[in-house]
Amino acid sequence: MSEIWLASAAVVAGFVGLIWSADKFVGGSAAFAHNLGVAKLVIGLTIVSLGTSAPEIAVAISAALEDSGDLAIGNALGSNIANIGLVLAVTALIAPLPIQRHLLTQEIPILLLVTAIGGALLYDARLVRWEGVLLLAALFPLMYYLVRIKQHDLSPHEQAEESDGIPQMKNQEAGFWFSVGLVLLIVSSNVLVWGAETLALSFGVSTLIIGLTVVAVGTSLPELAASAVSALKGHHDIALGNIIGSNIFNLLAVMAMPGIIAPQLMEAAVFSRDFIAMALITLLLAAAIGAGFWLTRSGAAQARLGRRIGLLLLASYIAYYVVLFR
User: Fold this and answer.
1) In angstroms, rounded to a whole number, what is the distance separating the alpha carbons of residues 12 and 285?
2) What is the pLDDT of residues 56-78, one digit of tens each?
């Protein structure tokens, strides 16, 4: 029993450390880039956007090094499910989310393409090294493409929102927080992975289940907090874009780590249950965005992701948990 309490404390401490250190790591990185003359919009679309996936990436690397590839894959898939079924759902319930046209023509097609690629690679419940390298390599041209098109397509207001979160620091201060954040990211992820593995062994469940639930929800807390606070303040114009971008990062960067570092055979359910669930809730979101534009095609009102869709997404998320623990 004492080991369970110690493992639970390690999980909580790991989550807190991940969230705090990711914020400092990204802040230092963004400040460095800004001091070097990189455009704020580019920083917002790359470093700051990547920051919401930093906890997942750190956990994936740590888990892969501990030969817990299932936990890393579960974290990637579970985080994507939580981002849509929990984070977006709760945010939409707080305030309807405006849908920009570029989501339908740019981000959603890319997310669906990346999802299809991820499914093709996970179909045999195995992610080998060349597949992990392929996923990670695809991230860079996609980031370049999104930065190029958004530099032209985003309104000044949206560009300003994309640039939020870039602190003003001198290089010495930026270097300090970059270093502190990186070290604590590594330590926190190791503490979290140890706690998660110990809990899995104690309760007789697989590390895949722990990754899909406890770890996935915990590493999605930054997105939930940021989206909920933004919605309450009325600054939620790009909330959908941020979640979609985070899901793309999770599939290309987070899921690639166990394949690159420690390829191994996973549970068959990782595709037949978990990937399929993620793909279905992703398709549901894409359909909701498309329907929103179709219903407002006359231009009389702006397309929105409203509370009914929020409830539907949340119900889908709960249904997945029912299937997971039946």
Assistant:
1) 31
2) 888 888 888 888 888 889 989 99
Contacts of 71 (CB under 8 A, 6+ apart): 59, 63, 193, 196, 197, 200, 207, 208, 210, 211, 215
Q: What sign has the CA pseudo-torsion 191, 193, 194, 198?
A: positive
Q: Which residue's entry shows tokens 């793909």?
A: 279
Cβ atoms of 212 and 73 closer than 8 Å: no
pTM for this entry: 0.84
* All structural domains of the chain with their residue ranges: 2-324
Tokens of 95: 């305030």
User: Which CATH entry fits the domain spanning 2-324: 3.10.20.30, 2.60.120.380, 1.20.1420.30, 3.40.50.2300?
Assistant: 1.20.1420.30
Pairwise CA distance, residues 117 & 263, whole Å: 18
Report which of 96, 17, 95 is spatially closest to residue 62, judged by C-alpha positions: 17
